[in-house]
Amino acid sequence: MGPLDKYILKDDALEATENGFQLKFQTHWYRALPLSCMDFNLKIDGKEIDKNDLKIKANGNEYRYDELLELDKEWLFVLDRGILEVEQPIEKGKTYDIEFKYDLYIPYILVGPQANPLLASSVVHKNLICQ
Amino acid sequence: MSNIKLATSLFSFAYEWNSGKYSLEDVIAETRKRDLGTGLEIIGFQSLRGFPYISYETEKEVKNLLDKYEFEPVALDANIDVGIKRHAKMSIDETVEYIKPQILAAQKLGFPILRCQTTAPAEVYEKLVPFAEKANVIMGIELHTPYSVDHPSVIKMAEMFGQMQTHVLGFIPDMGTCMRAIPDALLTSFKTSGVTDEMIAITKEIWHKDMPTTAKFGELAQTLIPMGATPPQIGRLNMAFSMNGRQPIEAWAEIMPYVVHIHGKFYGFDENGDEPSIDYPTIFKVFNEGGYNGYISSEYEGSAFTDEFDAFDQVEKQHQLFKRIVNDL
Description:
The structure holds two protein chains of two kinds. Chain A is mainly beta. Chain A has strands spanning 14-16, 21-25, 33-34, 38-44, 47-48, 55-58, 61-64, 75-76, 82-86, 95-111, 116-129. Chain B has two domains: 5-182 and 244-328, Alpha-Beta Barrel (TIM Barrel); 184-240, no CATH class. Helices cover 45% and strands 13% of the residues of chain B. The interface between A and B is medium-sized, with 32 and 32 residues. Chain A: Residues 6-108 form the C-glycoside deglycosidase beta subunit domain.
């Protein structure tokens, strides 16, 4: 959505793990937000990952996707990276087409008749070499 | 003659900071090297890991840096995250509890003012008065567009200030509330989403009309949809209304006794070093005549829409402009 989008996925963002892969992401807002204010959509080589297959890690803690809304005390600092983990094996050294939609619901900017948090949505689409 | 003092908010350097290439010391050292004022403003959730809880190490680091680079701590910025659970808003009492540790953070780090936001109503701040008095921290409520002095919430807040008779409540006017034009740099940035020059011209025309922001959203959509504008394009152009307020500068006089700090929002400069969208000479005149003798912090908004300029260069330009204005007062 803005200039800070360029920091979301760095060149080393995609990494093979024992059971699959992980994607390391940084925020596109200027201040820390907790996981409760975030939502994700991930496509790898055009295929969308079922959200229920996503594990979310921050500060060394691990959560299921359906826990996100409750995580208002798990903060992701602006210079730290969160991790999405997926149990789907990929190959180290190979290039993958990654489309990552990173939604932030800004908790101090309320908009519309219902005064809901402003949605700041960014999509990063790039080829990443699996580390 | 003016007693208004110059400061810089580290918000200005969001693009540089998020790159991870700067330590907190790097940013503060560069701010000093460029002579960007005598005061410093920090956003807790931007600059301090673990905020609002301040470890002994963080306390020592921040105080050492302020000391080493000779900055007066001016304001620590809190965030009033009432929508943090997304599906349910915080209650009044939950909001009160959410702000308390942020007041303590300001106290611990030696900042006299905690910047607060209008996402909490007057009732919340009224309840916090005894706590803030004990901590000796002023809650400065930021008046960010659309919260101009005639906004019902602001009127209510000012009435409460009057009743409470305390030194820990005040306002922080943001100069994005009283603009004279939509910044060209902002409008140009919308072109990446396919917005045309004609759509921009219409947006500018509607912005200048005397009607509520919500009515402007409506008129913009009604005019642009037949021209083939898409919802994302209209959404971008709506930002021009939601980010840029049109309150007359002179209206700040109505709340002048409550002003504890000012946010010197800015977007860019013309070839003469003037800010075409914000009339700073008149702003300084109005606050100076009102007897204001606190700080104005530079707040560069660039990270929201452009990476074309170095933020340190931009803040330096604003300080040159401010120094020129102060000399002429």
